[in-house]
Structure formats: structure tokens, C-alpha cells
Amino acid sequence: MPPDLQKDKGAASSAPEVKFWNDPGKRALLFQGLLVAAILLFAWFIISNTLNNLEQRGITTGFSFLSETAGFGIPMSLIEYSEASSYGRTFVVGLLNTILVSVLGIIAATILGFIMGIARLSDNWLVAKLSSLYIEIFRNIPLLLQIFFWYFAVLRTLPSPRQSIEFLGSYLNIRGLSMPAPVLEDGFGLVGIALVIAVVASVLLSRWGHKRQDETGQILPTGWISFGLIIGLPLLAFFAAGMPLSLDHPELRGFNFRGGMTLLPELVALWLALTIYTGTFIAETVRAGILAVPHGQLEAASALGLPKTRTLRLIIIPQAMRVIIPPLTSQYLNLTKNSSLATAIGYPDLVAVFAGTTLNQTGQAIEVITMTMAVYLTLSILTSIFMNWYNKRMSLVER
Fold it and tell me: Rounded to whole angstroms, what are the CA distances from 284 to 110, 287, 291, 358?
């Protein structure tokens, strides 16, 4: 071995060993272990103290109450429910009602937000100012006040059921909008099969159209063709099956309408408030995303002779989505959590029927609140997972 290498090896072997407190890696592991131990100790203290207090007061714990009879009615349910149903079923009813208003709000707020965000950048002075006025007004009014406005100032001023506003077989009154309810008959499954086939065919057609455009440069109107398939094919199946659908019309009996289906004013008020309020923030997000796209992209599209609508759809919006999607996810999460304000006007969401009435009747505060918190946490995580997947997909498409 050369003398220089022997010298270096000897120096390395004789180097003093680093003490534990002077090693940053070991010291960091120690502090992290102490932090985890402190958190576990604190959690054990809270849980043991809670269980001890419950035992002293004779309060039973557990989830056996979910099988007990609820004994109260719920004005709106997407599944079969009666006063003889269990508390577990009230949880499901409240969960479905929460998901319903959240999904409807997300869809409507997204459409409204994109329209208003693009309109605020319009060259038309009136359109730009009207969209700005909408954003500045409804963004700066608390959501709870907007819910009260739509419910008490608008919907609660409607006439009584006997003086209902009638149109197209529907009746609008203070109790809500009573509409004919569709009743599916034998053979309607063929329509569902036709719809599935049309959707699958549309997806395959869209992929083939994009591949054809990449190879030949020819644009195929896949959107209109898909629209025709999704509407036309189920319609043909509907007539071929003998129109297996009837309507259950509402009828005034006593002080209210019976039959059909009723759209509660509480649902409408909450949906309008969530849509309009969240739509303002989405509009600003969309405007910021469009402004983040380099102006040279717009100039290049204009030089190629592309119309503004196609430039916006094919060039500006796809690039702006990289900026829009992350804050858009936050708005979706906020809308879902803000739906818990439904209890202020009596809409039977999860907080009202489960964390409210069920908790008051059973006294199982820990279990009820834990389940309610877990639901909102789960909904938020699922929304984040989907939006993160969509964000990555958009990034891959752009590359």
C-alpha cells in the first residue's frame, strides 16, 4: 500500500469519535422520540381522565345506541326512513343530505365561478363591471347572513300551499317546490344499459378523435357526437321499451301536498348561499390563473388567426389550470365544511339530525361528535385525493 494511503487510513482510524450530544442526526432522533412519547402520554391522560369522569357520572360509552329506535322524523331523506328507524339510520340520512348539498354546491359554484372569472376579464365594459360587482358584494357578506337572506327574506315570503304558484304541473309555496316524481316501470333497465353503452362509446370516440387529430391534424367534433350519443341512444331505448316511465303528480290534501317529490326551501336556500358565496372565490382563482398565463400565448394564438373562444378553451384555460386547481381544492373543502351551517335554518344535514337531535336524545356526546368529525375529515381527504390526482393528470397532459 502506498505510504500516502497508509497515512490517511491511520489518520481516519485515529480520529476522535463524535459524542452523542454533538451528533445532529442522533440528537434529532432523540428529540423526535421524546416528542412522540409526550404526545402519547398526553393522549393517554385525556382518554383515561374522560373515561374516569364518565364512569363517575354513570354515563355508558360505546356505539350500541346506534341500533336503538330514533323516535323522531326527518323532513327530507334520500333513503327510506321513519320514526321507527334506528339512530344508525339517522346517521346515514344526515350523511347523504350533507353529501347532496355539498356535491350540488361544488358543481354549481364551479360553473358560476368560471363564468364570472372569465367575464371579469372580458373586453366588454358592462360584463366586466357586473361580474366585478357580483364578486365584491357576495364575497364580503358573511355566509351565514346570505343563508338567512335566501331563507327568510326570499323563500319564507312565498304563499301558503293553498295559494301555490302553479307551473308545468309543479307547485311553489312556502313549504317548497312540489313536483311530479318519476316512477320507473318494468323495462327501464334497458335505458340504463343504453346510457352506459353511450358513455363508454363517447370515451372511446374522444380518445380516437384525439389520436386522429395528432396524426392527421383534422379536428373531429367529438363533443357534439358524444352529446348526441348520450342523449339519443337512451332516448331510442326508452321508446323501444314502450316508454316505461310514469309520473306521480302531487295533490293538495289538507294543508299540504301529498305525492310527487318536494324540494325543501331549506335545501334551496343553503344551496344558493353556498354556490354564490363560494363562486366569488372561485372566480378570483380563475382570474388569477388566466392572468398567470404569459401574454405571448394570446398573441401567438391571435397571429395564427384563432378566435377568442377557441384560444381560451384550447390554449389559455389548459395552462391556467396549473394555477387554478390547488386553490380550487381549498374552496371545495371550505364549501363542504360550510354546509354544516345548515343547522341554522333547519336543513336536516349530519350536524342537525345526528350531532344535534341524536346527541340530545342519547347523551352519547363523545361517540356522536367523533363520528361527525370523522365524516367531515373523510370527505375532505377524499376530495383532496381526487383533486391531487386531477392536478397530476393535468400536468402530465401539458407535458
Answer: 12, 5, 11, 40
